[in-house]
Design a protein that fits this description.
By secondary structure, the chain is of the alpha/beta class. It has nine helices and seven strands. A seven-stranded parallel sheet has the order 3-2-1-4-5-6-7, sandwiched between helices. Helix 1 runs parallel beside helix 2 and helix 4 packs parallel to helix 6. Bound molecules: NADPH dihydro-nicotinamide-adenine-dinucleotide phosphate (NDP).
């Protein structure tokens, strides 16, 4: 699969995409790739307004409209208002990428209720409320793409990440259920499970841990946000029309070792 940036084939012309958490990291790369393939893009953020504006500048440089919204995906009412605002600004989202996510890593013995609840509310319930808010428009137009960003940690497990792994595993059942529920309306739902990707989430990991992980990756490097983007573009395009309910790992082969 070619690099998303070089694949400016107009495959998403006329589409409206919503990427939650588009102010940095993977979400930014996804927003830019979707724009470069022809979609107008809305992005959300919670704290990094400057980062969100940088992403928006990139989307606009690709010649597409961009709507930026401050919106905590854990706040259901705010999500409903945000989707309404996106719809008024650039149209109802045809492509939804539930990317916003956080970690609150700590060993289970020390994990506070709040560490659990915040991660589940953001990484799992956030995808539920955002998808529900976008579904009406997709059902009406009888076309839609829901792409959830999970993690290989859901399948592997990881010490210190019981909250995160549980939330991401929940996204698997969520994705398969909605794939069955809305397939008859020509809406697909898939889960992308990245491995270790170089972003702020992985920036603070100790060097020795990163070295150990790298040694277990058949492709022998951590991934980049741009490694994830081509798959999102593919699933969002007409080419992805017969793929639904799937989990696809983008992990350099880590989970297969
Ligand atoms: P980053 O920490 O770099 O970016 C997270 C993004 O999510 C930011 O845009 C942030 O906004 C936004 N966000 C955080 N909390 C909320 C919230 N409550 N409501 C709305 N937006 C929010 O993370 P990554 O790019 O690394 O991760 C993106 C996704 O990919 C996550 O779901 C993550 O779990 C998943 N993933 C990442 C992996 C990795 O190795 N990096 C591996 C596997 C999965 P703001 O900038 O305003 O804070």
């Amino acid at each position: 699969m070619a690099d998303a940036a070089s694949l400016n084939d107009g495959s998403l012309d006329g589409r409206v995409a919503l990427v939650t958490g588009g102010s940095r990291g993977i979400g930014r790369a996804l927003a830019l790739a979707l724009a470069r393939h022809g979609a107008d893009v809305a992005i959300t953020y919670v704290s990094q307004a400057k980062g969100a504006e940088e992403t928006a500048a990139g989307v606009r440089a690709a010649g597409r409209h961009c709507h930026v919204a401050a919106c905590d995906v854990a706040d259901g009412a705010a999500v409903v208002a945000m989707v309404q605002a996106v719809t008024e600004a650039i149209g109802p989202p045809d492509i939804l990428v539930n990317n916003a996510g956080i970690t609150r890593d700590t060993l289970l013995m020390r994990m506070k209720d709040e560490d659990w609840d915040t991660v589940v509310a953001t990484d799992l319930r956030g995808a539920f409320v955002t998808t529900r808010a976008c579904l009406r428009g997709m059902m009406k137009s009888r076309w839609g793409r829901i792409i959830n960003i999970g993690s290989i940690v859901a399948a592997m497990g990881n010490p210190g990440q019981a909250n995160y792994a549980a939330a991401k595993a929940g996204l698997g059942g969520f994705t398969r259920s909605i794939a069955r529920e809305v397939g008859s309306r020509n809406i697909t739902a898939n889960l992308i499970a990245p491995g270790f990707i170089e972003t702020d989430i992985t920036a603070d990991l100790p060097d020795d841990l990163v070295a150990r992980v790298r040694a277990q990756i058949p492709l022998q490097r951590l991934g980049t946000p741009e490694d994830v983007a081509p798959l999102v573009v593919f699933l969002a395009s007409e080419s992805g029309r017969y793929i639904t309910g799937q989990t696809i790992n983008v992990d350099g082969g880590l989970l297969t070792t």
